[in-house]
Automatic annotation (TrEMBL):
Family affiliation: Belongs to the transferase hexapeptide repeat family.
Source organism: Arthrobacter ginkgonis
Taxonomy, superkingdom: Bacteria
Native organism taxonomy: Bacteria, Bacillati, Actinomycetota, Actinomycetes, Micrococcales
Name this polypeptide is given: Serine acetyltransferase
Metabolic or biological pathway, per its Swiss-Prot or TrEMBL entry: Amino-acid biosynthesis; L-cysteine biosynthesis; L-cysteine from L-serine: step 1/2
InterPro entries hit by this protein: Hexapep, LbH_SAT, Ser_AcTrfase_N_sf, Ser_O-AcTrfase, Serine_acetyltransferase, Trimer_LpxA-like_sf
Amino acid sequence: MNFLSRLMEDLNGARAHDPAARGNVENFLAYSGLHAIWMHRLTHRLWRNPRLRLPARLISQFARFLTGIEIHPGATIGRRFFIDHGMGVVIGETAEIGDDVMIYHGVTLGGRSLAKVKRHPTIGDRVVIGAGAKVLGPIIIGADSAIGANAVVVKDAPEGSIVTGIPASNRPRRPEERKPAVDPAEYIDPAMWI
């Protein structure tokens, strides 16, 4: 997929996920979540070359300064990822994020170890993570799950889970809770599960 196609895919994703999104030009110019994702795509490409890791880190820190969103260049992020509001988001080096994932402000995908191993979460496709949630350690959050606002998640959650609480526990999503976040008429705010 070429650069322009990926850019349009991100802009369309922003419009699908955010009812306040008024148009592609405004979103292109004003959405810090999109800016952070675009900068991450650049820094991740640089990060794959060991000789370019310092420039990747410097650019990622400049992006953090501009957007308030910290994404380590080593993190792997899928397509149509969207960060709504964004301020305070932290995504660690070994985090893996699937396609069509949406996260809100204040979310941390962090580690629980100082060892140089996989220490950050793996987030499946179509997961929604509510504001302030902390997902910590090399855990797996299954596809089509939703994490409630301010949850502290330190254990795996199977596909199709609702994950809430401190420490978080999970339960299966009921059929009426399985609506995709990308359909504005069917949107379910993850904060409703706290």
